Amino acid sequence: MSATSSHRAAHPAVYFVLFAPFSALSGYLAIAAAYALAQAKVPAEAIAGLLAVTFMPHAAKFLWAPVVDLTLTRKTWYLIGCVGSAAGMFITGMTPYRLESIPFLTVVAVTAGIAASLLGMSVESLMAHNTPDEEKGRAAGWMQAGNMAGSSLGGGLALWMMEDLHVSAMLTSSLMAVLTLACAAALPLVREQRAETPAGGFSFATNARAAGRDLWEVACSRMGLLAILVCFLPIGAGGASNLWSVVAPDWHASAATVALVTGVVSGIVSAGGSLLGGFICDRMDRKWAYCLFGALQAVCALAMAAAPRTESSFVVFTTLYALTTGLCYTGYAAVVLEAIGKGAAATKYSLLASLANMPLSWMTLVAGYSQTHWGNGGMLQAEAAIGGAALLVFALASKLAQRRVGPATQPAGVA
């Protein structure tokens, strides 16, 4: 359902503001909290484990997606998610940064991650129902930019306040929580359209069967199979970026540099990479564009491992890495959108997006393990090797599918 012609749709920039809190907590954990934990001599493996669990609720969000669709209103669910995310950030700042706090912080991260998933789904639903078809691409671009900006700016700003301005973690997290809540001020700019409840009422079993049928329709097509494969492969997952604040001292990067580069700079560059990736994907085969982007990120990781350990190297390579991450995220989205076609596109995309968070989680664990056991260079080399192997698997699967099936079969429901 698109916005009616009698109601002028909100400018797509509103989704930048509404979606920013979705990744603000994960950014705070990955940059500000991770840096503080590293300074407290907490092992990188333990920090990576904490960061990895922040992706887990997003890998399982399809289980509670029907609740958002069929109960309350999308704006109500947004407020619930926003408050939960802000509370998670506040509690994280109240907790002492030491090894003994990791189990408690893990519980907070998972709980707040569930709240963030509710916020994300409500924004996606508002966008789908309130944006004219001719503006949905632009709206999605603004939303993705908000996602990356929320993560980079949220964590970078917090670290800058804590390390450069010497603001306490308690006050910093309180201010970040207030900024998170402030994003809800953009809600009145978006029109609410209530979801229609089925005649038989709400049923988890019915919705699960319907979701299963949608996914099966996608899986019956060559492009659909490749899209599902993409979700499980760690191509362009960007796991190392979650540990930049942990490994920064090896490159002699100051807290101010880490805050600036992984915050403001990475937010702007990754958002620009997303826009550039969309431009490229519209001008070449999207599958091979995605492979190209993943290869660029692997090369960037290898180059960073081989480069001199200086602050300037840290700035250059983390910035390039942010650019390739934006490219890869857009490449992934382009492949999946091409595969799911129309029909029940929202349901199918939600399912695939849930699956896609799995490699984000375990690649963060891999980065933490390899950094602890093989050092910072080993972490970057391991990520590049795994990414290269994933690219090879995807390329071979694509060639094999094309040889066996011939021209791509459109998934059921495509107009």
From TrEMBL:
Membrane topology according to the record? Multi-pass membrane protein
Main localization (coarse)? membrane
Xref: InterPro entries: AmpG_permease/AT-1, MFS, MFS_trans_sf
Q: Origin, by domain of life? A: Bacteria
Keywords noted in UniProt: Membrane, Transmembrane, Transmembrane helix, Transport
Q: Does the keyword ATP-binding apply?
A: no
Q: Does the entry feature the keyword Transcription, yes or no? A: no
- Pfam families, from UniProt? MFS_1
Transmembrane residue ranges: 12-38, 44-64, 76-95, 101-121, 142-162, 168-190, 223-244, 256-281, 288-308, 314-337, 349-367, 379-397
User: Where does it live in the cell?
Assistant: Membrane
Q: What is this protein called?
A: MFS transporter
